[in-house]
Design a protein that fits this description.
The strands form 5 sheets. Strands 1, 2, 3, 4, 5, 6, 7, 10, 11 and 12 form a 10-stranded mixed sheet that branches. Strands 16-13-20-17 form a 4-stranded antiparallel sheet, with no helix packed on it. By secondary structure, the chain is α+β, with helices and mostly antiparallel strands. The chain is built from 5 helices and 20 strands. The chain is globular, with a radius of gyration of 21 Å. A hairpin with a 2-residue loop joins strand 6 and strand 7. The protein has one domain.
């Protein structure tokens, strides 16, 4: 059995967090941050302080999405979670209530993830694995329970705000709602990194002061960084499939065709684009591209544990009288781990 090792960066948020979804609906926030969004924020931070940004947008390391971790105290041991790999077929369970519980599992702690990569079939046999299900998490860790009986340590709270467009008082203020995310105890989000992390480390020191997500002007999205841990995962010596831990954009149509050429492949994807955030182009949109989500399972494996490419979403030519003078990188390079499927 082989192993692969990654550096862990923990983000402990000192303020609430709001991450916009594709619909730009402020009343709904994502609970994790995609690798391409985070990469774009890091590149932007380097550019703002005049650092030399790589011409190809590559930070010389690969990163995962930002996933949840649970930690009760500052000096406690964190429990890290990775996305449950998508499955082309779900386990057959006699009890519909058990089947419903299994379907809700989205996250697997890293202590169980190596078993999963090496072909262990959870929720089979006599059903002892069902005791590991804590809401949407599969773990031996005892997660906290709130007054409503929820074990989710990533909390969502919708707050009402008021938008004032006319300060003369002639027009009424318009109420709207913002979903803000907070983390119970000393929990937060973390990501994995592999490669030369010198530029990444430099950009993180800037980003923690800039904040991440929307509503940073009211103090959202600020965090502290802890990167004292490494993660070692036991991986199979041989496998026919691989699971993505980052947003993934294939290098070519030919590569995509090979990756999907199997009936056990299972995936989901999202449209990536949005507004340009650098002045004076904030009224312009980037080009758009589709990327596969973490947890997607593909055919084949790679010895480098990395697939994908970085693309430039800069619109070409003049738009609304403006010509954008810098590239807009979208990172579709993904950590890929071999996985045995039963």
């Amino acid at each position: 059995m082989n192993s692969v090792r990654f550096k862990i960066y923990r983000l402990h948020f000192t303020a609430p967090l709001h991450i916009s979804d594709q619909r730009d609906d402020a009343s709904i926030s994502q609970k994790t941050i995609h690798s391409d969004t985070f990469h774009a924020a890091l590149i932007s931070c380097l550019a703002k302080v005049g650092k030399d940004v790589p011409k190809d947008g590559d930070l010389k390391c690969i990163i995962s999405d930002l996933f949840p971790y649970y930690q009760q105290k500052k000096d406690g041991e964190p429990t890290y979670f990775l996305p449950m790999p998508l499955q082309s077929t779900l386990p057959q369970l006699a009890d519909p209530a058990d089947a419903k519980k299994v379907k809700k599992v989205q996250w697997v702690d890293t202590k169980l993830y190596s078993d999963l990569l090496n072909g262990k079939k959870f929720f089979g046999g006599n059903g002892e694995d069902l005791n590991l299900i804590k809401a949407s998490y599969l773990t031996n860790t005892e997660l906290p329970i709130d007054a409503k009986g929820s074990r989710d340590f990533v909390k969502s709270e919708v707050m009402q705000r008021v938008k004032i467009e006319d300060r003369s008082g002639k027009k009424p203020a318009l109420p709207y709602y913002v979903d803000r995310i907070s983390f119970k105890d000393y929990s937060g989000l973390y990501f994995l990194a592999s490669g030369d992390t010198a530029l990444l480390d430099e950009a993180l020191q800037i980003l923690k002061m800039e904040g991440i997500g929307t509503d940073r002007y009211v103090g959202y999205g600020f965090f502290e960084i802890e990167n004292s841990d490494d993660l070692t995962l036991e991986i199979p010596d041989y496998a026919n499939h691989q699971v993505a831990l980052s947003m993934f954009i294939p290098k070519s149509k030919e590569q995509l065709k090979e990756l999907l050429d199997d009936d056990k492949v299972a995936y989901d994807f999202a449209r990536r684009g949005g507004w340009i955030t650098t002045p004076p182009y904030q009224t312009l949109r980037k080009n758009a591209i589709y990327a596969f989500l973490p947890g997607s399972v593909f055919y084949g494996t790679t010895d480098e544990y990395c697939l994908g490419r970085i693309v430039n979403l800069k619109p070409e030519g003049e738009i609304d009288g403006q010509t954008i003078d810098h590239p807009i990188w979208r990172n579709g390079k993904s950590i890929m781990l071999p996985i045995k499927l039963q």
